[in-house]
Fold these 2 entries.
Entry 1:
Amino acid sequence: MKEIREKHLKRFDTRAVHAGEQRWGNCEEQPGRGFCPISTPIHLSTTFAHENVEQTDRVLGGEEPGYSYARYGNPTVTAFEEAIAALEGGGQAFAFASGMAAMHAALMAAEVGNGATVLAAEQLYGSTATLLVQVFGAGGAETRFVDVCDLSAVEKKVEELRPRAVVIETISNPLLRVADVPRIAEITRAAGSTLIVDATFGTPYLQRPLELGADIVVHSATKYLSGHGDLTAGLVVAGAPYDGALGEVRKLVGGIMAPFEAWLALRGLKTLPLRMERQCENASEIASRLAGHPKIAKVNYPAAKDHPDNEVARRVLSGAGGLVSFELAVDDPEAPERSRKAAFRFLNALELCVKAPSLGDIYTLAIHPATASHRELSPSRRARLGVKENLIRVSLGIEHPDDIIEDVEQALEKV
Ligand SMILES: *Cc1c(COP(=O)(O)O)cnc(C)c1O
């Protein structure tokens, strides 16, 4: 069986299906087998033997491609990595056991160490902010935060701090603010800073940050890339000069993705374009249906005309994403507990949508950010970020939109 040639893998959807798959060699050349698996096998092996010790020596020395020990690399993991690199349009992909392990490795590869300054998006995923402040902070790095949607503030801070790294996200949680990646990349490039983009919410289907000037892309593959809510994984995609350090950090810290998860993720990845298409459609449908609803005060969706980053979203994303957040029309700043009660009542009344954290699954998931993703923040910090007690975030699945809307509407009736 022949390898699929590059010329057949020009388009994203085709790459999503075929890239990375190891359909090695010619079946006839495998005596006594006469078959070739069309799906890359799960290589559950902690160690790999070779023809002779000389070859082992060459593999360990990096003179010959191959595998030696599972913490250094595994063929099933490589298949998933190659598929991701093909979708990101460049760089080398490194798969990790979680998105956080991936972010840690990216920051290490960017040399965020003692004395370094990091400029991070104020809207950053909570654990990433805590990783920076607590773990890298303990190692002597200082993190400062900025509203990444305020480009002049970003420019000023980058000039003032000359940060080692700038960490942003394609689309923020839960207000779905959209970063102007190409403009921010110009700013960081001029200052010699490494731009790290957490592209979890966008996936390469909506945006490929490396093509827009970012240096390092990070994903939580737990979300859209695998897409079925059944595994935890992360990825870093980058080229020189970061790839050497990424391989080294992964080997020494030991956060490599496991082969079974890699196989599941590679399987999930094949339908990324189909899932994202439907999730974006569902999100757009829900956002427009809820916009005029009497029980809703405000809807956040980047494709909506009144979204503050609507212009940026049109320019830097090829779709507005699969998440929507909205405020219930019960906001009473004097009585946040009333808002919380309404939000809880709404969530408890959902019958189809699953009340659970995470996002990007085939199931529609709904959460109350103030007590879930943003729980650890002080009320004043939540208020500054706009994470109100009446705010609900929905990650759309691939169900029929009318079923999702019916469920949301009946739950709204009970608020
Ligand atoms: C979930 C998530 C992470 C962390 O990923 P894990 O796989 O849970 O470790 C990082 N960034 C964003 C934007 C996420 O949504």
Entry 2:
Amino acid sequence: MPGFELIGKEEQEEINDIFDNGGGILFRHSFDNLRNNSYKVKQFEENFKKEIGSDYALAVSSGTAALRVALSVLDLKKDDEVITQSFTFVATVEAIIESGAKPICAEIDTTLNLNPIDLLKKINPKTKAVIAVHMLGTPANLIEIKKICDDNNIALIEDTAWGCGGSINKKYLGTWGRMGAFSFDFAKTITTGEGGMVTFKNKKDFIKASAWHDHGHENNPNFPRWEDTRSGSGFNFRMSELQGAVGIAQLKKLKYIVNMQNKNKDKIWNLISPINHITLRSKPENSFETADALIFLAKDAAMALDCRNELLKFEISTKILPEAMSWHFAKQWEHIPEIHNIKGKNNYSESEEILSRCVSIPIFVNMPSDMPAKIKNAIESVAIKI
Ligand SMILES: *Cc1c(COP(=O)(O)O)cnc(C)c1O
């Protein structure tokens, strides 16, 4: 689950450094003569690129902003369509709506991510981009999804909000598509309180996004900022130096976090896997999860609910599934007419069948030692009655 479990001294020292050595400058640009060469956001971007092996990276103010900034590169028009998956956080769809395009949600498969077969069915001449989400830390079937996007000349963006530190064939998530969008909100693998990062394959996309996220500022080195050059308007999604400083310290903990989460997830699964009527969520071959949650599929929806109720008796809460689909499943978003008024097209029956059987257990870095046994007792007591 996270950065927030491991936040403290190192982050505080990075913040103090802004005041002790960097003149207290909290803006990522300018004030060059006052800051003693202290550029925390820039440093965070450099370190992040190295860590995950991406050519370009731009820090932004949130994960939702990261998605919106990535979409800004594509100059989307009113009738353009962007396909994502039915099981995601509302932010993915909100970013598509804000970009001016129409969001289309495809079914998921048992990875709980974009179903390549349904994706192919939904692609049409209006499709301009696909946002594949690595929900709760398990990689989407990126090899198939990327091939479909390449064959149809469609931009692939990865919503890597939960996927920071995960990989397929040792290549990090967020570096497979044309762009990757990361979140550092307080519930994500690493955190800056609020914050995000966009990664890019192409320099041209990076330059365009950098300007767009900063009111169109090109940060032309030949001019002071107030006389800066511009080619188009934009918005303000800049990250502040305070967030950048925290990001530098958190990033150093990323490997430890995902390794511990995988270890703790395996501990639980090794104990409960012999129980009848449960199967583990599937994942792509040769993939490495961030293991933010352990999700298993129960025999049916009733068993999933029983598991949740039994887990609660042992003071173990579940994460999003089965109880909190309302913020994470397109079928429930009646407050978003942009997706709900597409009549007859989206009933998400395949996704619903899968999601209603899922039980998601949050994984902690500092897992209480009695947690695996409690989980086993809870689920066994349900399975025995079937
Ligand atoms: C958290 C999240 C986001 C948004 O990130 P924020 O930093 O909270 O804006 C986007 N997509 C998914 C799948 C998320 O889980």
